[in-house]
Amino acid sequence: MSKEGRHWDAPREGTQVESIFVGIDVCKARLDVAIRPTGEIFVEENSIPGVARLADRLNGLDPTLVVLEATGGLERELVLALVQRGVRVVVVNARQVRDFAKATGRLAKTDQLDAMLLALFAEMVRPPVREVPEERVRALGDLVDRRRQVVDMLVMERNRLHSVRAEAVRADLHAHITYLEKRRIELDQELKALMETDLQWRAQRDLLMSVPGVGPVVTLTLLAQLPELGQVSGKQLSALVGLAPFNRDSGKSRGRRTIWGGRAEVRTKLYMAAVTGIRVNPVLREVFQRLVAQGKPKKVALVACMRKLLVILNAIVRSQVPWRPRV
């Protein structure tokens, strides 16, 4: 059951409220909600009934925008409930909000303050609303995430073998590694079956894998975590992934261009593809060698190859024409 809270920054009596902005701080057990410009704050439990109550309540308010932080999946049910009711909702990167907090001098941190900050972020920044992936895309994403988790556990367990001497512990590690290897193979089979049973995904997979350097893991990650591929411009896609270079200039000073934010897992897989691509893909190899010859650090050249690869993949999906090697 919801608990009513106090009001912050409430408008003066007689003020007409035209636009409503909502910030929601998502925790495992509760949802702290702040509404601007009324300043209303309340708490709802993060459960199936609680999510339904909150979604209905916000639907009745007809807010201009609702903003939540990405919290590793805890926010998914609420986002889906809001979307199903036609509420405009955006899930933002935590780093964006932290930078906004620093810029506005709001450094104190509690769940209610976080909710108020998210509501202010919604009002001042107005991040664009993106389409929520279909159920099949979410299911694919869950499987891809689980495979990555299993692979990460395999790496950790194999690393532990180097520092453990007790035979009983080593035997336990070997047994767990065997189980994880078996589970990884099973997940690969499940993902392959999922691809084969969906004609659209199978076509997209074949298009993406026609590009030298792009393998099945990269392809699955792109399909699951970058549904905008082929739908937006190359520049927009680079910004989404976190490959767009940001200026750090002030006066006559020209700082180094850097990349940050975006979808880290997609970026990691593109890095792997680019490393392979500079060996097997003539276009990426040419870009890499040209930049290195100009004196660019190899890391900078590799990021440029990642960006080039993303643009190529975006164009291929948009045109539905597979990679054509240069003659």
Automatic annotation (TrEMBL):
Transposase IS116/IS110/IS902 C-terminal domain mapped to chain residues: 206-288
Gene Ontology biological process terms from the UniProt entry: DNA transposition
Gene Ontology MF terms in the entry: DNA binding; transposase activity
Full protein name: Transposase
Ranges of residues in domain Transposase IS110-like N-terminal: 22-164
Pfam families: DEDD_Tnp_IS110, Transposase_20
Naturally occurring in which organism (per UniProt): Deinococcus hopiensis KR-140
InterPro entries linked to this entry: Transp_IS110-like_N, Transpos_IS110, Transposase_20
